[in-house]
Amino acid sequence: MSRLRTALICHHDAPIHRDGIARWLASWSDLSAIVVVQEPPTVVRRRVRRELQRVGLLRFLDVLAGRLFFRLFNAARDNAFLAGRLAALQREHAPVAAGVPVVTVATPNNAESQAVLERAQPDVIIALCKNMLARRIFRTARVGTFVLHPGICPEYRNAHGCFWALAHDDLARVGMTMLMIDEGVDTGPIYGYFGCEFDEVNESHIVIQHRMVLDNLDAIAERLREVATRQAQPIDVGDRRSGSWGQPWLSSYLRWKRRARARRGA
To answer: What is the pLDDT, as a whole number, of residue 1?
Structure first.
């Protein structure tokens, strides 16, 4: 088959996606557009309000405590890991060609984003963003728009699926799901599960969830080609429970790490 035409939607403050994944896409497909999402503060505030309404005040304080803890004790190691993996991708793959259209938008659902995607005419869009995409956006891809979701769906949908599997000692479901976007939250057709070895004692959930993608890039590319040529069919998950999760809690993180150390005898 001819090379797939692809497009990427990602956030401006995620260079591992904006540069690293973009280079990877351009190495095996015809990368035809990049939509970079730079959200205004109002969007972040809306997410904060939704999480507060979802879990209540006490649990939201648990979320905030987790954010502070991760910033103080995990951020330096997490950032070093991501910088190292980005450098590896930069060594392995050439920069994206200067002629590839790049647009920076406040939301991937606006008219500017839609216009650049329609002009690009991608077969496949890879959406590495937090935003719910409008149907008119995800349907611009001929084959479909795919997410590389950090978590095994349908059990661990929405946010931080790897974290919540680890927090519930559900190690068999620490992985990544490749699914095609529909109108729901991680409810579209599932075309593959991907995993890798990880160190639950010494690695944070951020490192683990990134490894699930970065350690499987060749297999992901091959699966996308199989979907495009109809060699791959969706996985039937109709008899499995579905769960939607939110932001990590510090209390759950600390319990996970205690269990992990005890399991290893550390």
So the answer is: 60
Q: How many residues does the chain have?
A: 266
User: CA–CA separation, 75 vs 96, rounded Å?
Assistant: 28
138 residue type, one letter: F
Cβ atoms of residues 46 and 163 within 8 Å: no
Tokens 């497909």 appear where? 29
Cα Rg, the chain, nearest whole Å: 18
* CA 38/CA 110 separation, integer angstroms: 12
The C-alpha atoms of residue 169 and residue 204 are separated, in whole angstroms, by 15
Report DSSP letters for 53-104, one per residue.
HHHHHHHHHHHHHHHHHIIIIIHHHHHHHHHHHHHHHHHHSPPPPTTS-EEE
This model's pTM is above 0.90? yes
State yes or no: pLDDT of 266 exceeds 90.
no
Token digits of residue 107: 């939301």
What domains lie within the chain, and their CATH numbers? 5-264 (3.40.50.170)
The predicted pLDDT at position 260 comes to: 97
* Tokens 């980005």 found at: 86
Give the whole-angstrom CA distance, residue 222 versus residue 249: 36
Q: How many CB atoms lie within 10 A of CB 200?
A: 18
Read off the pLDDT of residues 132-161 as tens digits, 9 standing for 90 and up. 999 999 999 999 999 999 999 999 999 999
Return the sign of the alpha-carbon dihedral for residues 51, 55, 59, 63. Answer: negative
CA angle 264, 207, 64 (to 5 degrees): 95
Residue 105 and residue 127: Cα distance in Å, rounded? Answer: 14
DSSP code at position 249: P
